[in-house]
Request: fold
Amino acid sequence: MWDEEKETIQRDDLEELQLKKLQDTVHQAYERVPYYHKKFNEIGLYPEDIETLEDITKIPFTTKDDLRESYPFGMFAVPKKEIIEIHSSSGTTGKPVVSGYTRKDLDTWATIMARGLTGMGLGDEDILQNTHGYGLFTGGFGVHYGAEKIGITVIPISTGQTKRQIEIMNDFDITGLIFTPSYGLHMAEVAKEEGINPKQLGIKAIGFGAEMWTEEMRKRIEKEYNTEAYNIYGLTEIMGPGIGVECEAQNGLHIAEDYFYPEIVDSKTGKQLPGGTEGELVLTNLEREGMPILRFRTKDITTLHYETCECGRTFTRMERIKGRYDDMIKVKGVSVFPSQIEKALLHVSEVEPHYQIIVTRPDIMDQMEIKVETSPDLFSDDVTKMVNLQKTIGDYVQNEIGLRAKITLVEPHTLPRFEGKAKRVLDKRNFN
Reply:
């Protein structure tokens, strides 16, 4: 589904379209969503005050806490009978965030994901195995709707049943795969155990997302499956997967700017930052009936680039998410992201990309231990070899984060595997 007119639109024309849609959305939110009506009145802001795109900074931010406080249906802008599908977050850190969709919203969702799958090189001759979860999680359904829109044959297998996944990949001549990076590597691992070489399955494109990753992780995935792997970005609060998807250039995710307005802000001050500057991603719905969200703080750290892509698309390109402000851990006063650890580990060929970060405070000082699985052919009783490997990993980690960590090598297949988002950090410090 190549929408050349929209996806190669000139920036001036795009901004004119965005302004009109923004003004309509702000009116809709103010008139129909009690939260926004109250919030606008508290600061003396009215829809008519949004005269330019720059005026978006007058609108207060929306946070996940705001959405939780409106649980379950307080952010809906239409009667409940017009909401035909509901998804939500897991609610592991409080009340879940609920996301409601009208029929038009679902068509929008399908459209943006269809564009993304097309940009990855998939079409109506392909068979796509979708391992993302299909329950309240938005991942499975978003990919499914987009694939259906362009006629891709979908295998909606969802998560789990890894051996069955491998069997289907092999028997059904799958040409496209969707997974989280950690689960994709686990699948390759299981395939080899079952006597199947992932490189020979004929996969022509992989879409991955839903957790942090590094370029080293992407290269490992591409090597395992002998194909290209493309990043997909989305979040429940705004729509779901498809907000941003990489094209075949693999030089950033194209955000569907005719449906979403992206900003980068300073996480501490909230001040808007110019293109090319790293900061926190903020997103605004420009065309959503059921639940228009204004200036949502994603907590995701990235950079936006506005130069035209080599593929011809003019939509802004978003760099891969470096980390999340709420995933960041402070160790001895230093900010550490799991993705930095992963990047360091993937420089070492003798270890697997399965690791766990454990932070403790046995007395007054923080201590960080990184447990890492070795390759099956390495783990041995050769103490000197193991000590040298620990030192090598420790040096890479220190070079990446500026801290020395304890490196513990463990046998293959001893660390947890995750079918959804990987849980890499165990923070055992007592801050009471």
